[in-house]
Design goal:
The protein has one domain: Spore Coat Polysaccharide Biosynthesis Protein SpsA, Chain A, CATH 3.90.550. Helix content is 31%, strand content 17%. The strands form 2 sheets. Strands 3, 4, 5, 6, 7, 8 and 9 form a 7-stranded mixed β-sheet that branches. Strands 1-2 form a two-stranded parallel ribbon. The radius of gyration is 18 Å and the shape is globular. 40% of the residues are buried.
């Protein structure tokens, strides 16, 4: 994911994140046995606080869980933030607001909600003509990365956190908690060993938020945005996603001994009402908003409009 990783890492750098300095945090980039692994010098070019952890192709697993646990194992900070997907772009205030929140609440689990770049979820990409080339043009149109919050103007909510900031959360693709809590709940479950990790990210979120005396906080006005890259599920079509999720749930029940359940926690909101997100907030509250299974309008064709 060389195209996507470059934006993801830039969005975590001090050149992009606001209110923080290099000595405030480190970024550990774990390469999980890529066929074309990045050079260490390229990773470190994003800042003096970037470290590179390559996992050889002989040791790499199809699932990211082992790679995440290895990354946490070499971390030195008292808090960790997990971005399971190397194709995510963060908003500029994520790290500063997360650090502040982690220190204000005991046993905090600090989560961000996720969006897809593009005006409909990426599982409908084939029907709309959405592609990496279209995505590049959209990002150019908003002048990214000069104002990272303008990504809200070209994005759509994912089907997982369908209520945005204003309801229950199912998972987070950039989640922060203390390193001690991470180990307390056992980190990422490496039993989720299929490519992409199956329900590992949702399972980790549920276990973290179920931890006794924890405080779940959602960063209002901050988010991560998924770039299209032909991933295991995010850009698959609706039918494939439904079939794979059913398979993952069956495997979960077989392994864990009970059906998978989402967290029931309602998060506390901490943050700022970004003006760039006004359209997304209005969309969340539309009474006639289509659900995640509703196909996009037939006249939405990126290949014809861009």
């Amino acid at each position: 994911m060389a195209r996507e990783a470059a934006r993801s890492l830039h969005s975590l750098s001090i050149a992009y994140q606001t209110g923080v300095e290099a000595e405030d945090y480190e970024v550990i980039v774990v390469d999980n046995g890529s066929d074309l692994a990045p050079e260490r010098s390229w990773v470190e070019s994003f800042g003096p606080n970037f470290r590179y952890l390559p996992i050889s192709s002989d040791e790499a697993k199809p699932s990211p869980c082992n790679a995440i646990n290895q990354g946490v194992a070499i971390a030195v900070a008292p808090y960790v933030g997990i971005m399971i997907d190397g194709a995510r772009i963060a908003t500029p205030g994520c790290i500063n607001l997360a650090l502040d929140t982690l220190q204000r609440f005991d046993r905090a689990v600090v989560a961000t909600i996720g969006f897809h770049l593009g005006h409909v979820m990426q599982k409908w990409a084939a029907q709309t003509g959405y592609s990496a080339e279209v995505e590049d043009m959209l990002l150019d149109q908003i002048g990214w990365p000069e104002n990272g919050y303008r990504m809200f103007e070209i994005a759509s909510l994912t089907g997982v956190n369908w209520e945005g900031w204003f309801g229950r959360m199912a998972e987070s693709n950039l989640i922060f908690l203390s390193r001690s809590m991470y180990h307390e709940i056992g980190g990422f479950d490496e039993g989720f060993d299929l490519p992409g990790g199956e329900l590992a990210n949702l399972d980790f979120f549920t276990r973290a938020t179920d931890t006794p005396e924890s405080t779940l906080v959602s960063l209002f006005g901050e988010a991560t945005f998924h770039q299209i890259h032909g991933g295991t599920l995010s850009a698959a079509n609706h039918e494939k996603i439904s079939a794979e999720v059913a398979r993952y749930k069956a495997r979960y029940e077989e392994r864990i001994g009970r059906p998978f359940r989402f967290s029931t926690r309602i998060p506390l909101l901490v943050g700022y009402p970004r003006p760039e997100a006004a359209g997304c907030i209005a969309e969340i509250h539309r009474q006639d908003r289509p659900d995640a299974a509703t196909p996009p309008p037939a006249d939405l064709k990126y290949s014809e409009t861009l």
